[in-house]
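Researcher: Let's run the pair from yesterday's discussion. Sequence first, then tokens, for each.
Model: Starting with the first of the pair.
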Amino acid sequence: MENPFADLLPDFFHFTELHPLQLVLLLGIIIFAGAINGWLFKKLKIPQVVGYIVIGILIGSSGFHILEPNVIKALDPISTVALAFIGFLVGGELKIKTIKKYGKQFVSILLFEAITPAIVVGALIFTIVFAITKDYTKAISLALLLGAICSATAPAATTDVLVEYRTKGPLTTTVYGIVAMDDAVALILYTIASTIVAPIIGGHVLPFGIQLLNICKDIFGSILIGLAFGFILSLILKHTKDDEGRSLAFTLGFLFLCTGVCQVFGFDNILANMAMGFYIVNFAQNNTKSIFKQVQNFTPPIYVLFFVLVGAKLDIWIITPFLGLLALAYVLGRTFGKAIGSMFGAWITKAPKSVQKNLHFCLLSQAGVAIGLSIAAGNDFSESVGPEILLIITATTFIVQLLGPIFVKIGVKNAGECGLNVTTEDIKKTSRVTDIIIGKEKICNYDSPAIVSETETLFNILNKFSHNPYLNYAVRSQKGDDLVGVISLEHLKEVMQIGDFAENMLAMDVMDKAEITCKPSTTLPEAYKIFDENDLDAIPIIDSDGSALGILEKTTVDHYLHKKIIELSRKVEELDD
């Protein structure tokens, strides 16, 4: 079927070649369009990565052909760099203590979630192909090869959703572990399948032993390269830990160097950078506390480029009805197999209930390795089933790349892990003064706010200090609620040293003028800025009319943030039960 949208736009809108002068313009268009669409999808409560892919589909091979295939191909280095970042950040999640705690669980789930869909997809494909073509050789070949390829799970779209929704807990940990390892299982299964298929239908496949040795070389060679780069980087970061900008520059440089070495010598880029992240987080953590956060902050525009290009590569118009049926069977079989396999693997190792019930939602995405293996099949069996496999994987990737992130969101939301991976700074950004003093999350639930009248005696004020935890009080006018000053306990102690006469003094006699105030709508970052710039420990709170509402003390804000972090940590611990 031909693409009906390809020629709707004038030639001016088609990038047919990648000229150096056009590169910056093209990157700007991709990032801007992708970011806008991602924002719109996020507003619709759909993971933003889906928005990136959709805009890619619209401007690429399945849509208006604004990006022609040769231009998309020329931008492949962007995808390589994006996968390097993804590998590094996934490696940063693989802490040794986590592996020790979940190691057996990871292995069990990994084997079942990879092998079960291979069996289910293989059986479905064999049944359909044999029923339609009566060709046993073709049926068994497609069944074995597609079954092996379907075991792979794409880390990119999955981890992007986990980062977007700030997830933390046993399900998130398990997902990171599985997507880090199941590509290796897919490579081994493909090696076995292609070795069996080659004598049946013919092909340019190396003997099984040599293929297995090549896979071992690729896996262990990639890991060694990544560990070596991680070791050198950790030595450098020791001397740059106080300079975040320089630390980020060295880290990015090593990510590019590691990726380049892998490209030159034919090793796995994702695995190598994953090993580098693993080394840094486990053996250099005292010197690199914030390096993963810095790298993560650097990645959004790269991810936009990557996922837009993923969508641009997909071409849905090349699928025939027969291949469409096989693609549908592949998606359904893979989904069912991943679900059954992951649930059984989690159940047999007594994983937390949240993992048993929701892991299968997070394993649907398919991209890099699956497409790579389909290309390998296209080359190895070019005269038989290779082209069909390439088309089927292209079509199914189109489907699961759109649906996969949505189901990841469903899984982590059902597991109750959204919004748990936050820092004190994150809570600050989303909190206001009203959350602490007069909101639902207030820290101090006292009978009265920290307010006294300007005509109140110091004796009465001292009595209030003794019965409440406030160290400061806002002073309001006698005739109304307007703020007129502030009294601190330290200031009051100094006044009381003049003798018994001080007890009969009034608040207006000793208060300081309240020149600096805040409002309930003031954000916590703004409040901290006021504290720091004016060397204050407390700020009076007023409403829009200038009426005194209470006092905001720095210790109370610190306590609020600490309490929120503890609450989130307890939620994560409860999820492990």
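Model: Moving on to the second of the pair.
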Amino acid sequence: MTAKSIIVTALFSLTLLPLQSQKIEVERLPDLNVPRAGHQLFFVNGELVVAGGHTNGFVPTPTAEYLKDGEWHVMQMVYNHDFAASVILKNGKVLFLGGTEQPIGIGQTFLAELYDPTTHIFDGFGIMERKRTLASALELDSGQVVVSGNWYHDDGIEVFDGQKRFTYIKDVADQRCAPHIFRISKDDALMVGFTDARGDTLFSAVADRLRGDTIHIPLLESWLPLSIQSHRDEESFIGDASKDEYIYLMPVQNKSGQVAIAKVANGMFSLLPTDGPVPMQCQGTDIFYSGHIVVDRKTGRAYMMGSAYYIRTMPEKESPLYILCIDFAKAVSGQPAPLTLYYTDPLPAVPDCPPVVTDEGDLVIAGGLTGVSNFTPSQAVYLLHLGIPLATSAQGRNYWLWVLLPVAIIGLLLGILLLRRRRTHGDCPPCEQRSGLHGDCPPETPDLPQDSPNNELMQRIQGLMEGQRLYTNVDLKVSDFAVLLGTNSRYVSDCIKASEGCTFSQFVNKYRLEHAKRLLRERPDMKLSSIWAEAGFASEQSFHRTFKQDTGLTPRDWKDRG
């Protein structure tokens, strides 16, 4: 084994180090006056507020509460808003839209009202153009609010004018329940979703737009948005609207169940580079993530919550909560975002609405489901203490980290010593050995022998490429593979170079080219413009150039020759 092989092996061992994890303390805050689920939770005007939802017996409650001086104060809403949409507007007020019409989650409503946190008064002012349950809403820079999504009723896009009027804009290509809505410019937004209006999984890479035609999202062919209910996508915003940077974080999941973090930047979807894969287990227990990310812009962190049981199949027992911390600020500066997994002692209720971030960087959850029943929601409120430096969480690593770390360091030192010895041995400098100028010099041993970790990694790279057709993602980068494989970009590139003799881009284009040829053979009526887009090429020029370099023919000539 060469010195470089030893170094690579040691580095490979380091990439297998377990994710940081840490148990956190949970503080029980005063209970709500009304047990509730399907509600809205938010901080506004310095106060924690819960509103709407349903209470015992799965009956909608037209009440809200705010926490002040260690006590929850009940307020009367104008309408019921169970499984409704909400938006915290730039003017400080909160807009509530729709919800179920009857108990047990039946029907939809047109109803809209505003909450003024300075007066604690609700104002029922009008109705939407379409009655909705489990809709989503997002405010544009203009103050208009885009509304889309529905449950067991027709979906469509409408806009609230910021005053008291709704205007229906158009139908949608895909019917969606609780879709994600992301701004892609000052006056435009797009919608994607995990489930259709009947609750079935929506296998679609199509995004609807407020203005303009639908667009195709290659990433969504391999990764689906995670299932969610009530949420506010503005809480996942990490961009800067003043610079026209509309960037959001969204959890996604592939067919094998692995979760990753997608970055949506001005309508372009890609995987966020992270320093390891999103953990799917903790202490031998599976983690089921909720599907929404909340951002703490002050610290540059984002959080996604999970539990030990899928929220709709949870047995009658307590579950720990898991909080995945994504240090996205480092990814913005070009580094992979560090991940840290926090977990709690088992709690009796699982929240069915996203948490909110406090001014101190902690998380608050309130209400939620107990057991498998929507008929007995919780009134518990918890404060999760997360406002601590990430560095302190290193104590949560598995014990065998400390065994691997010295081994890796010893391997690196040994590799350096061997490398120095090779360079000082004999009269032939290493550069001349490699160029073959001295016939007496033995050829250098290959950097990565067949029994090295490189061989295993290459098999995993090929498995991901072929099994999930990642090459169809026009934005695919080597860092995406590094995230999925839990290693680093340099190691992936070196592995492909050693095994295939080409760069990462050339490697991906080989797959794209074969996919395009297959489409040309099997779908002769398909337009060339559709073929290169579906195969993952960024442009028609790139497709033609790559095709001709490989075959010596244009795609049309190759197709005509059969």
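Researcher: Give me one sentence on the second I can quote.
Model: The CA atoms of residues 42 and 214 lie 32 Å apart.
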